[in-house]
Amino acid sequence: MALTQPQAQPDIATYLVDMERYPIYDLDRGVGADFLKECQQSMQTHGWCNLDGFIRLDRLADLTAESNTLLPQAEVLTIKRNIYQGAIDPSLPADDPRRREFMHVAVQLADDQIPGDTLIKRLYHSQMLTEFVRRVQQKQQLYRCADEFQALNVVALQPDSWHAWHYDTTECTVTLLLQAAESGGEFTFLPNSRTDEAEDREAVDRLLAGDMSQAKTFSRGAGTFTLFRGGYSLHGVTKVEGKRPRITAIMTYDEQEGRVISDDINVRIYGKRVARILAARAENQEG
Ligand SMILES: O=C(O)CCC(=O)C(=O)O
Ligand SMILES: [Fe+2]
Question: Shortest CA distance to 175 belongs to which of 94, 102, 113, 229?
Fold first, then answer.
């Protein structure tokens, strides 16, 4: 009887990503190494790396259809938050724009609502993709976020809604546009508008006052993969116009392995559904 060796599962990225344009399968040699260098330079020079058509057009439809199938189960999240998503410098005057709270309304699937066998979850879990993100961000170590709610999210912005200006709570999030708005819904940001020590207050003030002249925006078709430093770059999405919702997958990474987010923050973001899950768990542990 012939013995067959178990075949290693091919990485889902080789199926979904346009490897001719974006050869992420080998970042150490040839075209892959050249491409990586370009991405790193773009991060260093501009603070972003925008990869249009990252997902193969012939595969994108499946990815989008899958999100559209899951989204009816998603919660409508209504979150009031300031741009820092929390702590404000107490020395700021009461009318400072940095104290302002913005309303964020989105239909949002949390990680635990996205099954493990979906293409999007498999793509997020792809070692090849995580390694690519790590190398572009030039981190010694980079792990997918281990939080059961935050790790991977699918966010639909309905017509007339926008994603309020904010800094992410993790440094390097990646966004993959699955379905573009008919118009509007532009991802807009101030690359590296702050460091751990300081913030470009002039640029931030301008954006908060509605002046987008210093902000960066791209025309991004569905399938575009964008890397930036969301924890250090004030960003948001302009108002979605037309009839079609704008859908993005948000992939979260952290330099620390096993990073989870506090229950308080998760309840604040994800609301009653997550509050119920956590309360039921606490009860089980007591009982
Ligand atoms: O939808 C996008 O392109 C960005 C979303 C975002 O900034 C976030 O979820 O933190
Ligand atoms: Fe963000």
Answer: 229
Are 247 and 156 contacting, i.e. CB atoms less than 8 angstroms apart? yes
In angstroms, what is the span from residue 167 Cα to ligand 2's centroid? 6
91: exposed, middle or buried (Cβ count in 10 Å: 0-12, 13-18, 19+): exposed
Contact 238, 228 (CB under 8 A): no
Model confidence, pTM = 0.93
Cα–Cα distance between 173 and 255 in angstroms, integer? Answer: 12
Listed residue (158, 174, 153) closest to 105, CA to CA: 158
Placement of tokens 């090849």 in the chain: 128
DSSP H or E segment with residue 131 = helix 127-137
Q: Which residues line ligand 1 (CB under 6 A)?
A: 155, 163, 168, 175, 187, 235, 237, 248, 250
DSSP codes, 137-154: HT-S--EE---TTTSEEE
| 93 CA → ligand 2 middle, Å | 26
Q: 1 CA to middle of ligand 2, Å? A: 56
| Residue type (1 letter), 11 | D
Which string of b and e fits 4-16 if b means at least 16 CB within 10 Å? eeeeeeebbbeeb
Domain 55-115+141-281 architecture:
Sandwich (2.60)
Instruction: Give the atom of ligand 1 at the shortest distance from the alpha carbon of 226.
Output: 3
Q: Specify whether the CB–CB gap between 177 and 224 falls below 8 A.
A: yes
132-143 pLDDT, tens digit each: 999 999 999 999
Per-residue pLDDT of 245-278, as tens digits, reads 999 999 999 999 998 999 988 998 899 999 999 9
Q: Which candidate, 247, 277, 236, places its Cα nearest to that of 70?
A: 247
